[in-house]
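Input.
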Amino acid sequence: MPAVPHRRQPYILVLYNENPAWPQVDKDWADEFITQMTGGLREQGYPFETLKFFDDLAGLDRYDPRQWLVWNWGEELGGQSWSEALITDALDARGFTYTGANGATLRAAQNRLDVKRRLQAAGLPTLPARVFTDPAAASEWTQFPAIVKGNTQHASFGIDRHSIVDSPAELAARISYVRDTLGDEALVEPFLDTREFHVAVWGNSPPEALPPLEYDYAVFSDRRDRLFTYEWKFDRTSRGFQEIKMPCPAPEDRPDWQARLCALATAAYTTLGLRDYGRLDFRMLGDEPQILDVNANPDLDIVSVLPIASRALGYTYGQMVSRIIQFAAERMPA
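Output.
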């Protein structure tokens, strides 16, 4: 079992949000994460407290930032979607050191098209894409099948089997859906019905890629089902949650792909300014991985790559958490 060096042992404040409007199943899911996290902290001997908030971060004022490191699981403030940068702004203003990306990185990562442009400028492989707001312009896109995502959505939100489109008419309908249902622009790119890999990266100087994980959709014959949708990620009763296989390390049959995936993941992580931990999503175009998405502060649930990949290396959940804490603790004032 790997040794986890404790460079310093700060007090840990686990900061997380809960919206009163959430359905009970979402609240239960969040509570499960917190239970798992605090169990890991207890296993590793960290003194800790938890702080739940909705629209007020005044509870932070009870803690001394010279002693407390914040595990930042705050994803929204006051029910405002994708407002995590406001939380890091508040932490910075109070002088806290916290896990994960800062506000500038979170804001930059919010726009998928901007992320693609930064990857392309760095010479990293990512698919061509275009943002649509008007369904009438769908006839201008000619590469099918295509996939349609909300340009500023994350965590697979708004992605389902209808996100894959095969014609301008289907594309127009999906652009309307994204506009009317999500209130967002529609990012369109070619859909690669090929092997999909996620790579976790952790650390800062230098970052380290963990073994890639594959989402194996072989059980599904319809390409619209070969997609890790929001439902399949969070609904444990869904067929996708239960039947998608997730081998790690992967792909065992192509060690050259493994090496390339890890190299590209660390390069993208550095290019976009992620820190402590992150996740990169890929699909293959021939022998070259294409970067589909870049995730700062990714989920650490049972179907996510970081817990699975760290476990493949022999880490317990608590040891994984401790590694991330130690990366962040290097930024604490002496």
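The chain is about 35% helix and 20% strand.
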